[in-house]
Amino acid sequence: MNRFFKFLLVGCSALAINTYGQTPYTDPNNQEGWVLNPEVSDEFKSGSLDKDKWIVQGENDHFENKFKGRAPSQFAPHAVSVENNELVITTRWEPGYEFMKGKHQGHKFENITTGAIISKKKFKHGYMEIRCKAADGPLSSAFWFTGKGGELDIFEIFGKYPKDKHHEKVYHTSFHDWSKNPKDPLFGKTSWDNKVQLPFRLAEDYHVYGCEWNEDFMKIFIDGHLVRQITREELGDKWVMNNEQKVWVDNEVFPWKVNPKKEDIPAEGLKFHIDYVRVWQKDSGMASSSQLIEQNNLLANGSFEDGLEGWETTGKVKLMTKKGSFDGSNHIKLAAGSEATATLHMKLKPNTTYVLSAYARLPNSDEKTIYDNGWLGVKNYGAGQQPIIKYFKNDWYRQSILFTTGKNANDTMIYFTNKWKKNEVRVDHFELVESPSFQETHIKTK
After folding, report:
1. Domain check: are 8 and 109 in the same one?
2. Nearest-angstrom CA–CA distance, 203 and 294
3. Cα–Cα dist 272/124, whole Å
4. Fewer CB in 10 Å around end: N or C, the chain?
5. 71 and 147 both lie in a single domain
6. Which GO MF term does the entry hold, naming one (predicted)?
C-alpha cells in the first residue's frame, strides 16, 4: 500500500470516530469554539433526503436562482438520492428524458440529466466542510455557496479531463461577482481564484475539503492541510463574500471545457458520493478568535529584488527592471524558442508537506485561440513524480503545487520553464511555505 493511501486510511479512521459534527477536521480539539449549525448541515443517515432542509433542483418544476443546469445537461430530481448513508448525485445519459425547450449559453438541454441540492436556510461566516468522492468522469462535482452579490466555489473538480490529465489533480477555488449590472461583461465572472496541483487524482477517493470564512479572511484546506489563506484587504473589490449564503452541492457539465459523450457515461451513471456536509459557526464571544496562520516564505529571492542571485538559468532568461512586475521592481522574462528555465536549489526538511507558488503571465495568450503555457515545477524532493502546473492567462495570476518530501530532499529543484514554446512568459513572486497539518499527518505523494 502506498504512503498516501496509508495516510488516507488513518485520516478516515480518525474521522469515523468523530461524532456527528463534533469538530471541524482541522480543529479536532475545538480550540476555536465552533458550534454546528444543523440547519445547513447533514449526515445523510436517515435513509432519505431531509426535504425540510434541502431543495432538490427541478422538483415540482422549481429551480432555485432559475438555474436549470448547465446545458446540455439539465437538473432532474431523480438524479438525487440517499444510498448507503450517503447523498449520491448521479449524472446519466438519458436522451429519452423530457428536457426543457430553449438553450443555456448557446447549448440545448439534451441527453444528460444531473442533480443538485440547495439549502433552504442561509448562514454568514463559519467553517464549511464536506467529505466526498467526486464523480470520476468528464464533468464537474462542486461544493459551493451563493448569496446576494457573490458566490464562493470551494471546489469544482473534474474527475476526468482529456485535454490535460494534470487538471484532474487540481483543487480549484473561486469567487464570482454577481453584484454588477447584468449587462456588465464582468457580471457573474470569476473575480478571484486559486488553483493547487495535488499529488493525486481527486476523483480516485474520498477527501475532506474545508474552508474557514470570516469577515476578514478565508482559509482553504484539504485532508487537514492548509493550502491557501487570503485576506479581504489583499483582494479589495474582488472580495465578494459579504452576505448570507446558501449551500449548493451538484454535478455540472462544462461543455466549453469537456462535453461528455454517450461512451463517457456508464449505464449506472457518474456518481458524486457525499458522506456529509457540515457548517460550524461561532457564538458572538468567539467570533473574533480566528487568526491567520503565520507562514514564512522560505525563498530568499523569490521576487528577484536581488536580481538573479541564487537562481540558475538556462536559455534566454532576462531580468526585467523597468516596469510591469507583479511584486516589487523586478521580474524575469523567459524568452520564446529557447531552453528558457530558471531553477533554484533548496535543502528541504524530510517528510514535510510544502506549497510552492508563483505568479506568471503570458502576454501573447488570448485564452481563446492562443494558449501559451509555461509551467511551474518541482523535482528531486525524494518522493513521487515531478509535479507541474501550467499557466495560460495574459494577466498576472498565481498557481500552486502541494508536495511532500521523502527522506532525502537535500537538493530539491524549484523551477519555471518555457521550453519549446513559441512566445515569452513573465514570472514573479515565487513562494515556498510549509503546509501545516491539523491532523498530525502529511499528504503523501503517490
Report:
1. yes
2. 31
3. 26
4. N
5. yes
6. hydrolase activity, hydrolyzing O-glycosyl compounds
Helix (H) or strand (E) holding 54: strand 54-56
Q: What is the DSSP annotation of 208-267?
A: EEEEEE-SSEEEEEETTEEEEEEEHHHHGGG----S-BEEEEEEE-BTTTB---GGGS-T
Is residue 215 within 8 Å of residue 233, measured between CB atoms? no
Q: Is 180 exposed, middle or buried (0-12, 13-18, 19+ CB in 10 A)?
A: middle
Tally the domains of the chain.
2
Q: Note the helical H segments in 271-411.
A: none
Do 37 and 90 belong to one domain? yes
pLDDT 10s digits, 326-371: 999 999 999 987 889 999 999 999 999 999 999 999 988 876 666 6
CATH classification of the domain holding 370 = 2.60.120.260
The amino acid that residue 46 corresponds to is: S
In a domain, 301, yes or no: no
User: Is 446 among the domain residues?
Assistant: no
pLDDT at 322: 86
CB of 57 within 8 A of CB of 79? no
Phi first, then psi: what are they for 388, rounded to 5°?
-135, 160
Based on the fold, state whether residues 155 and 259 are members of the same structural domain: yes
Whether residues 110 and 191 fall in one domain: yes
| 171 and 24 in a common domain | yes
Could you tell me how many residues make up the chain? 446
Which grid cell sits at 153?
A: 466555489
Same domain, 234 and 86: yes
Residue 27: per-residue pLDDT? 94
Q: Are residues 70 and 204 in the same domain?
A: yes
Residue 445: inside a domain, yes or no?
Answer: no
pTM of the model: 0.92
**The three grid cell numbers given for residue 304, joined into one nine-digit string:** 528577484
- Model confidence pLDDT, tens digit, residues 310-331: 999 999 999 999 889 999 999 9
Q: Which helix (H) or strand (E) holds 133?
A: strand 126-133
| Span 268-294, average pLDDT | 87
State which of 265, 281, 297 marks the end of a domain. Answer: 281
Determine the Cα angle at 195 with ends 425 and 302, to 5°: 50
What CATH number corresponds to the domain at position 273? 2.60.120.200
Residue 207 structural domain: 3-281
Q: Which residues, in sequence order, are CB contacts of 156 under 8 Å at separation 6+?
A: 140, 141, 142, 144, 172, 174, 252
Return the amino acid letter for 267. Answer: A
| CA angle 20–276–216, rounded 5-degree value | 90
- Is 251 inside a domain boundary? yes
